[in-house]
Amino acid sequence: SIGDGANDVSMIQVADTGVGISGQEGMQAVMASDFAISQFRHLRKLLLVHGHWCYTRLTNMVLYYFYKNVAYVNLLFWYQFFCGFSGTSMTDYWILILFNLLFTSVPPIIYGVLDKDVSAEILMQLPQLYMM
């Protein structure tokens, strides 16, 4: 939802994503929103460019986390055949913590900073790419 006045605060708070536009009515809607823009014309770039990038990053990271966990569980599964299902630990706890820290925090940061599948100019010229 989009709000630009004090009466829109409750509408922004119940929406999935609230966009506040600062205007003459005050800053209440902007303070209650998830995203704040200064003019209505910036809404196009917020939706078409940043919305597209956020959606592609989010979907790729969900797939990455599934892949990471499946790879580690398969490793544990095949290790149990190797050790005869004795229940021994394959790795020390500090290695498991390092694995999760390294493969859960570093790739999203790098991916979030560097990944832009389509440039902002092309996304603004072709709004149909948002539907993909």
Automatic annotation (TrEMBL):
<keyword id="KW-1133">Transmembrane helix</keyword>
<feature type="domain" description="P-type ATPase C-terminal">
    <location>
        <begin position="30"/>
        <end position="131"/>
    </location>
</feature>
<feature type="transmembrane region" description="Helical">
    <location>
        <begin position="93"/>
        <end position="114"/>
    </location>
</feature>
<feature type="transmembrane region" description="Helical">
    <location>
        <begin position="62"/>
        <end position="81"/>
    </location>
</feature>
<dbReference type="InterPro" id="IPR001757">
    <property type="entry name" value="P_typ_ATPase"/>
</dbReference>
<dbReference type="GO" id="GO:0005524">
    <property type="term" value="F:ATP binding"/>
</dbReference>
<keyword id="KW-0479">Metal-binding</keyword>
<keyword id="KW-0460">Magnesium</keyword>
<dbReference type="GO" id="GO:0140326">
    <property type="term" value="F:ATPase-coupled intramembrane lipid transporter activity"/>
</dbReference>
<dbReference type="InterPro" id="IPR023214">
    <property type="entry name" value="HAD_sf"/>
</dbReference>
<dbReference type="GO" id="GO:0005886">
    <property type="term" value="C:plasma membrane"/>
</dbReference>
<dbReference type="InterPro" id="IPR036412">
    <property type="entry name" value="HAD-like_sf"/>
</dbReference>
<protein>
    <submittedName>
        <fullName>AT10D ATPase</fullName>
    </submittedName>
</protein>
<dbReference type="Pfam" id="PF16212">
    <property type="entry name" value="PhoLip_ATPase_C"/>
</dbReference>
<dbReference type="GO" id="GO:0045332">
    <property type="term" value="P:phospholipid translocation"/>
</dbReference>
<dbReference type="InterPro" id="IPR023298">
    <property type="entry name" value="ATPase_P-typ_TM_dom_sf"/>
</dbReference>
<keyword id="KW-0472">Membrane</keyword>
<dbReference type="GO" id="GO:0016887">
    <property type="term" value="F:ATP hydrolysis activity"/>
</dbReference>
<dbReference type="GO" id="GO:0046872">
    <property type="term" value="F:metal ion binding"/>
</dbReference>
<keyword id="KW-0812">Transmembrane</keyword>
<dbReference type="InterPro" id="IPR032630">
    <property type="entry name" value="P_typ_ATPase_c"/>
</dbReference>
